[in-house]
Each structure stands twice: as C-alpha cells, then as structure tokens.
Amino acid sequence: MRNPIDETTIESTRIDEQRQVETPTIAMDGGARTSEVERPSEDLTEVRPLRVRNLKKHFGGVTAVDGASFDVDRSSLTGLIGPNGAGKSTTFDCITGVHRPDAGSVYLYDEEITGLRPYATAERGVVRTFQIARELKEMTVLENMMLAPKNQQGERLWRTILPGSRRKVNQQERELRERAWEMLEFFEIDHLAGEYAGNLSGGQRKLLEMARALLIDPDVLLLDEPFAGVNPVLEEKLLERIHNLSEQGYTFLLVEHDMDLIMNNCERVIVMHQGRVIADDVPKVIMEDEQVIDAYLGANV
Ligand SMILES: Nc1ncnc2c1ncn2[C@@H]1O[C@H](COP(=O)(O)OP(=O)(O)O)[C@@H](O)[C@H]1O
Ligand SMILES: [Mg+2]
Q: 48-135+217-301 has which CATH code?
C-alpha cells in the first residue's frame, strides 16, 4: 500500500504569515461526526501528551481537516493513516503551527498550544518532520543540524546566560555541536556531516530531518512519512531506534502508507478519511474495521 509522495503538500508546507489564532477556541463537543470514535474524552485525570479536539482547516473550497479529535498516549508509537488527501499532513501542520486551524484545539499535556507558531510549539516540545524534507541545500549536514536548535534554543540560552558570559555561550555551543554529532551517529549519517545537504539522497534527507527534530529534545514527534525513500535495511534500523526512543519516554505519531509497518509497529492506530477520524483503536481492531476497509477501497489505494 505504499504510495508515491503526493505533491499536494508542497503548498501546505508554507507557513502562515499572520499571527496565529489569538483567542484559542475551546471546542469540547468533538463534533457529531466523530461521535462513533469514543476515545477522546475530557477526563483530565490521565493527561496525555497530545490531545486534538475538533480540529478544522479549509483551503478555499477544500475542507482538509473536518473536525478531527484524537489523543496520543505518552511514550507510545501511534499510527495516523488514511488514504491520500485524508488530511493527515494538514493535521500535522495545524498541530505544529505551520497552518493556523480554522477551529478546534490542540493541547500538549494540560497546556493549550493551538495556533502557536512552529518555533513556539517546538519550544514547548512538539516537533514534526515533513513529507517532503526541508533541508537547506546550500548548507552542510552539520550546519543544518546547528541551525534548527539555534533558532529554537537561542531564547532559552539567553535567558539562562548572564550578559558578557561568553565562556558559557561557547560551552553551550560546544555541547550543542556534540549532541548534533551524536544524533548524526545515531542515524548513521555522521560520515555525511561535511556534505552539502543538497547532495543527499531522499532517504538521507529524511534521516537528517529526524536527527534535527530530535536535537531539540521534544516530548512529541510527528513524523510525516519518514521512511519514504529510505532503503529497507535502514528502515528497519530506524524503526528500532524509534521504539528505543519511545521506551525512553518520547511520544511518536507516525504517518505512513505501508500498512504492514503500521500494524506491526504501532500500539494504536488513528484512521482519517475526508478530514475526519473514522477509527481509533489497536491495530487488530483497525484491520477489521469495515469503515476503514471501505475508506481505502473507495480511495482505490
Ligand atoms: N496548502 C493547501 N492548499 C490547498 N489545498 C490543500 C493544501 N494543503 C492540503 N490541501 C488539500 O487538503 C486535503 C488534505 O491534504 P493532506 O493533508 O495533504 O492529506 P494527506 O496528508 O492525508 O494526504 C487534500 O485535498 C489536499 O489537496
Ligand atoms: Mg500527507
């Protein structure tokens, strides 16, 4: 069921210019259409790292996300699947502030992060990778690695550093560089550190994106088709690493077309179709869900 990368998301990766939603709308109804999917609840006794409520996003006449609600468990690997155009990438865009949702809410633990810009969501602990990797081609792999956290950690750095304390800045930079190297080693692209990112293969770009995302040490990672273009041996290694990281407490939401991969690796699977969540359950149940089967057959995937 592996699909070619659809080009439609190139447009969707453009960051909204304006300031995001000013007054967060708290939509607790979840929408009548999602009522058959029972899991999302407002019971805060067990606060999950990521909760999405009644998320909506239109592009002109196209409804990309149409009232999606779901939860992601801590320290888990959750799948987000659905036929092409189901609204998966747009959901990621809305969670991480690439796009401003028209309605709905996103919570990181008990903090509402709806409408925050990408740097702000990253600072709070949610990062994503893109279906089409977004590295800076004119920079080396290592420079790309050093860039993202500098933007995102810069503020945090300055807050903790006394003015004029250059030694500490240098030390922080050194530590960052060391972590960048470790991450490149972890993803086995350290030998490419000096290579221009523009010369990497599709699979290597995906690894660079994931390494960069992890460098800021997020709580939640949203991976948009991270295995596209990655060879099977590396895919296996990457999966092992993701499992390893999730055991350490990282939370993953994974968009992936390869159904076997999803079913064999994810603890839970959320299924989107036409912008809505049509199923949310353990793989065994999802595989036999008639609505899910119909959605895929109908979409001719
Ligand atoms: N920036 C955009 N402008 C217009 N339409 C878009 C944009 N981004 C996504 N769409 C449309 O929204 C729908 C959902 O797309 P997307 O979220 O990319 O789906 P998926 O990732 O599940 O394949 C599709 O019909 C797509 O064409
Ligand atoms: Mg997509």
A: 3.40.50.300
Q: Where are the domains of the chain?
A: 48-135+217-301, 142-199
pTM of the full predicted structure?
0.80
* More confident call, 79 vs 25: 79
- Using alpha carbons, select from 132, 135, 157 the residue that is nearest to residue 145: 135
Distant-in-sequence, close-in-space partners of 45: CB < 8 Å, separation ≥ 6: none
Measured in degrees and rounded to the nearest 5, phi and psi for residue 191 equal -70, -10
Residue 64 Cβ inside 6 Å of ligand 1? The answer reads yes
The answer, yes or no, to whether any atom of ligand 1 lies below 6 A from the CB of 86, is yes
| pLDDT, position 184 | 93
Atom of ligand 1 lying closest to residue 87 CA: 17
- Given a contact cutoff of 8 angstroms between Cβ atoms, the answer to whether 135 and 144 are in contact is yes
Return left, alpha or beta for 284; rule: phi > 0 is left, psi -120 to 50 is alpha, else beta: alpha
Over the stretch 101-133, which tens digit does the pLDDT of each residue have?
999 999 999 899 999 998 899 889 999 888 766
Are the beta carbons of 299 and 83 closer than 8 angstroms? yes
- 5 vs 87: CA distance, rounded Å: 14
- Rounded to the nearest angstrom, the distance between the alpha carbon of 155 and the centre of ligand 1 is 33
